[in-house]
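Section 3.1: Structural characterization of target chains.
Under the original work plan, the team committed to producing a structural model for every single-chain target entering the pipeline before any wet-lab resources were allocated. The record below documents one such target. The sequence was received from the expression subgroup and is listed exactly as submitted; it comprises 350 residues.
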Amino acid sequence: MGVNIRALVPEDAVRIISLKDLSGKIIAFDAYNALYQFLSTIRGPDGKPLMDHRGRVTSHLSGLFYRTVNLVELGIKPVFVFDGKPPALKEAEIKRRMEIREEALIKYEEALKAGRLEEARKYAQQAARLKDEMVEDAKRLLSLMGVPWVQAPSEGEAQAAHMVKRGDADLCASQDYDSLLFGATALARNITISGRRKLPGKDIYVEVRPEIIELPRLLEKLGITREQLIDIGILVGTDYNPKGIKGIGPKRAYELVRRYGSLERALETGSISRSDFPVDPMEIKKIFLEPEVTDDYELEWSEPDVEGVVDFLCGERDFSEDRVRKALDRVLEALRKARRKTVKLTDFFG
């Protein structure tokens, strides 16, 4: 779910870009966010995901492989950050998500049986579930492709934001806005799902374009601090208090924080009651301000293990060997061009 503050983000605080504009950038991807997108969108007309001959889902591997190939070919250096143990306050949200998926699965099977394919596909997307073995498969594929990944001790978005703040990455990439609350200076959205997309329940297609939101510019436009942005998020609802405060949306939350200066002050004046929160809001705020992160990681990119990738994707998971080899050739050519460019610059400035 993540925190939904989209309604607060001014248009002039969002920079629409093309993927080519990110060439040379190191981007820390929220791996779970990306894999869920692939699991949800890469499906057949009836909602069924891609599978191998043993019935193992491969939609996430297909999305991860071909999207990563595209990124590397454009000169982008991706690093994928995987979630660790979630904070205790997230247990309620995890349980809620599981219930939604179980309900969606039931509706999917009913719609499929009745021949309502479009409806079935919608519920199939909602029922998408990322299993532990899928995560391990994703890590294995990235290693074979020469792309680094980082295991976060807790929230992946917190770790990705930490890497950006340290200067080890230039941007975070996620569909959620939590990275901004965790302090990432720049958030890239629509990186893994750019292109034409069909609107749910409508026969209308829209162009989804990559965009960047820079935290300093956003805060300047809104006239608030990062701590106040966190307060707004808590009022609207986060993964640690999903429902937020009844009757308070992003704009109302913004007005309250601007009027009282902080969530703490609003609580002190009685404008908001602590009883409105299922948990201590200050504990939620602490998660964003003092997240559990690690500096124990190395970011190294290398040439893909071509035969290793082919053995895994084609030998084990039934991918087309011709398509996979052609995609890997594109990666190798992109890396060769990058090396030639680096050598020329070294000679010029040497």
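Strands lie at 14-16, 26-30, 77-82, 149-151, 171-173, 186-189, 195-198, 205-208, 211-214.
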